[in-house]
Amino acid sequence: MEHKNLKKDIEYLIEGIIDGDTQSYLSAMKRVDGMTKLGSLPHKLNHYLSRRSYVKALEFLNSTN
């Protein structure tokens, strides 16, 4: 998953469940959690995501672009 898609998933997770769409929310969470297990992310970003600090992770991604 490229950072653009990761960023979209994080933004979705920050917004929370909208209109009762729990399945999409859980799918986004699984994709993000899967990225933390791959070990291909920068250490700081991985740290934020593994602790579900989505706002900090989004700030990190925005600062690297």
Account of the 3D structure:
This protein is mainly alpha-helical and 65 residues long. The protein has one domain (3-63). The protein has four helices and no strands. Helix 1 packs across helix 2 (22-38), helix 1 (3-15) runs antiparallel to helix 4 and helix 2 crosses helix 3. It is globular, with a radius of gyration of 11 Å.
pLDDT averaged residue by residue: 90
Order of helices and strands: HHHH
Number of domains: 1
Q: How would a textbook summarize the main sheet?
A: none
**Cα separation of the termini:** 16 Å
Q: Based on Cα principal axes, name the global outline.
A: globular
Low-pLDDT runs of 5+ residues are: none
| Alpha-carbon Rg, integer | 11 Å
Structural class: mainly alpha
Helix content: over 70%
Approximate strand percentage = under 5%
Number of helices: 4
Number of strands: 0
Which secondary structure elements does this structure contain, and how are they paired or packed?
Elements: H1 3-15, H2 22-38, H3 43-50, H4 54-63
Helix pairs in contact: 1-2, 1-4, 2-3, 3-4
